[in-house]
Amino acid sequence: MSAHEDAHFAGTNKLFISIWGWLVLLTFIEIFLAYRPMPIHFMLTILLGLSIIKAALIVAYFMHLKFERFSLIITLIPMLVICICLLFVFFPDSFRSSELRYKFKEAPPVAPAPAEEP
Amino acid sequence: MSTEARAERFPAVDWDGGAFPYRVGHRKLGMWLFIVSDSLTFSALLIGYSYLRASNNWPTPFPFYPSIVFSSVMTFCLLSSSLTMVFGVSASSRGDKAGARKWIFATIFFGLAFIVLHLIEWNHLIHEGLRPFFLPEHWVKVFTLADGTPPTPLFGATFFAITGLHMFHVATGALYLFIVALRVNKLKHEDIEISGLYWHFVDLVWMFVFPLIYIMSVDVGGHLAK
């Protein structure tokens, strides 16, 4: 048997059920938050925070990364995080393009009716 | 310094290489690298969606029923499918091939339930008039701002592209698991573990799609129903 095949599958079914329970609970919290009045930036921060926690639970326990060699973890995770952060480089431009639109103070003007020829 | 003396002075660490520097086989490492690259695909799509959302008047049209109820049940299906998949991998690690097959079929069932619910949800929206580059007329009336800025028609494009690509991953995952379930006696434990990695990744992506696409677009005031 090769070296990689004799690694046993760590974690018990009880542990996996408890992780599943946490994931379902966090999903219910997300749905509950959707109907709470709060600023959109605040809600986005909480929702992304909860999603990152859920993703970490799935990767660590269901995908078994917690039980793998540290060298595999350190090879995969930092490069993914850095690349995702780099994708955000162009994001501030969205606020600029939003500001480019003319902000009407009242109802938008309508085109004047064509003047009648004398 | 002799090799033996060097080995004694510098004990073996993970970075020493060898046949299995990560203690995983090449196929499993390949799946991990595929997952990293596919994560970047979905990240790019979700960041592009966020870019458009931040720079436009974005409609928030999803009512509690059917959109949020359906998407919540779909989330429950995917989370449960991950649990059954991990049970299948666990059974496989004990050499219980029949148990592994049973749990993999349960995973496929939850995956297919997700696809059916998602198609029903798409059907609701298409019947309402949502298209990749057009909004339903009543959405335009309701979500036009006081200053006359209309909602962006790109809502449909981002919605169908992101959820469609995810649904494609679920469908290919279900097909992959079906083939694995049929060949479970011939496959090694690591092959079943690899199929599990792909399935959990599909679940993981939904953990970002669900809040960003659905929860952030809830019609809290029930504007469309009025």
Task: Explain the overall architecture.
The complex is a heterodimer of chains A (118) and B (226). Chain A has 118 residues and is an all-alpha fold. In chain A, 59% of the residues lie in helices and 0% in strands. Chain A has helices spanning 13-34, 40-62, 70-87, 93-99. Chain A is elongated and about 85 Å long. Residues 1-7 of chain A have low confidence and may be disordered. Helices cover 71% and strands 0% of the residues of chain B. Chain B is built from seven helices and no strands. Chain B has helices at residues 3-9, 26-54, 64-93, 97-128, 137-143, 154-182, 189-214. The longest helix of chain B has 32 residues, at 97-128. Chain B is elongated. Chain B starts with a helix and ends in a 12-residue tail after the last helix. Chains A and B meet through helix 1, helix 2, helix 3 and helix 4 of A and helix 2, helix 3 and helix 7 of B.
* Structure classification of chain A: mainly alpha
Sheet with the most strands of chain B? none
**Distance N to C terminus of chain A:** 100 Å
Residue share in β-strands of chain A: under 5%
Number of helices of chain B: 7
Alpha-carbon distance between the two ends of chain B: 83 Å
CATH class of chain B: Mainly Alpha
SSE blueprint:
The complex is a heterodimer of chains A (118) and B (226).
Chain A: H1 13-34, H2 40-62, H3 70-87, H4 93-99
Chain B: H1 3-9, H2 26-54, H3 64-93, H4 97-128, H5 137-143, H6 154-182, H7 189-214
Helix pairs in contact in B: 2-6, 2-7, 3-4, 3-7, 4-6, 6-7
